[in-house]
Amino acid sequence: MLCELTTKKTEIQMSIYLNTNNISSQTHFKTMTENNNLKEKWDATVEKLSAQFADGDTLNLDGIIYLIGVQELGQGQRRFKKDEKVNLMHIAICKLLEPYGYYEFDFFDPDGWPHYKTATQLPTLKPGEQSVLMKEAIVNYFEAIDFFK
C-alpha cells in the first residue's frame, strides 16, 4: 500500500512538473514571438517616421516621443523653448501610457497644453523594460491612428 501511494504521488508530481514546464515553454515562446512582432513593428515605425521627419537620419526613441508630444499639443510646427520641449515629452509619455492606466487626461490649460494626472503609480522597471514598454506604447499609438495605412 505504501508503495502504491508513493508511486501515485511521484506520478502526480511528475505530471505537475511536465505540465508546468510545458506552460513555461509556451509562455516563453509566446513572449519571444511577441517580442519579434514588436521589433518588426518598431522598426517599421522608426523607418516611416525617419523618412518623413528626419531627412534621412534615423530617429531614436526620444525623438519619436518628442514628435508625439508635438502632435498631441496640436499647435503645429513651431520653435519650442527648452522647457517646452521637456513638457512636450511629458505630454507624449502621459498620452502613450494612458491606455495602460498609468495616466488620465485632466484638462487643457489656457494656452492649450494638455495636463494629465497620475491614475496608477508606475511600477519600478529596469531601463530595458522601460524601453520595451515605451516602444510597445508607441507602436500601439500609431496603430490606433492608422499611421501604417
Report on this model:
The chain has four helices and two strands, in the order H-H-H-E-E-H. The protein is mainly alpha-helical and 149 residues long. It has one domain. Strand 1 and strand 2 form a beta hairpin. The chain is globular and about 45 Å long. The N terminus is likely disordered.
Short précis:
With 149 residues, this protein is mostly helical. Helix content is 66%, strand content 7%.
What key phrases describe this protein's structure?
149 residues, mainly alpha, two-stranded antiparallel ribbon, 4 helices, 2 strands, 66% helix, globular, disordered N terminus
Helix content: 55-70%
Shape estimate: globular
Order of SSEs: HHHEEH
Question: What integer value in Å does the Rg equal?
Answer: 23 Å
